[in-house]
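Still learning. Any example?
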Amino acid sequence: MTGTWLVGGIVADGSGADPVAADVCVRDGVITAIGRAPSGAAAVDLGGMVLTPGLIYAHVHLGLSSPIRAQFGFRLPAAELAADIFAAAGQALEAGFTTVRDTGGIDGGVVGVIAKGKVRGPRVLSCGPVQCQTGGHGYYGAAWEPTELWEAHHVPGLCALSLMSGNADELRRNVRESFRRGAGFLKLCVTGGVVGGHDRLDDTQFTYEEIAVAVQEARARGTYVTVHAHNNAGIRNAVRGGVRCVEHGTGIDEPTARLMREHDVALVPTFAVVEQLTDAEGMDLDPETRDRLSGVRQRMEAALEVSRAAGLRIGLGSDLIGPDQRRRGRELSLRAELESPMRALVSATSVNADILGLGGTVGMIRVGMRADLVAWRRDPLHDPAVFADPDMAALVFKDGRMMKGESR
């Protein structure tokens, strides 16, 4: 059997097993063998580098890659928005992320041009516009502007932040519209957020009945709903409504974690954005954001501990916004400090793949899996700061194609 062998590396396969010295064969974008390369085989010498699965981000916002206040104020031309979106996509790939789940902000055209190879970037799964309650989290229009004008700020095929719903019938219509545009799953905001426009962090948004409508529509298409949620009341509404994943989960307590475990609902914490937003001035955000951040990091750490003890599937996502998204791997470094480097890697590979519904395709170095791979110049399991430095990702393969680096 022909193929190209990656030789001389240390394989951390994404399962949590101890790394081992092994060679990996790639053919037609698929891993076809793991072991020892035969003599004379076409080979890429890793020279002792650590080889991991391509990293997976379960919470990104490629469509929010411009200066935030200018973007939310609709002061940027479509050309600049597009340039920033595509730059962020390329930066994600450079940092070792071969799959990302965009949880709101891009429209279907972005997914298409990256998939066609016209723009460098990772594999992108997208919910399209976020589903938001009228006046809730995700709405950043001026208070005087009629809600129905909000969608006029969308750039079809490029960016569409959110759709507003005032009742279950409007939500059903907007959900169907999102699927028409190519959404692969749905995201609802069921609580307020940190970067808020007209909401508070402790608000609960959408009723149980409204959430259940979105879940019904998603299930009809063989997919799922995830929710932006910080407080327990909103999380419990969403879990009982049938959602499959919770983003942020800042206030999760033991009863809520048990409920999530009973319903097999996953959690995707987002620590890096909390660190990023601390610099509200540098991020060009409203100073009120700093006030909203008070205590969020500590509560998120406690929620992570409670969720781990409850046995939840815990993925990884950063929620970074604004123009500086180069250090996406910082989320792994932060999680490594709270848990361990191996646990952070597993969350960012096999667990995230499972959450995204790609567990049989990517997320581990296994025969038959897609050849999404990263070779690191230094061992990130020994020094997790390596994850945060894009230059440490020496070679990046997506579907077996070398997207970064040169073969030796």
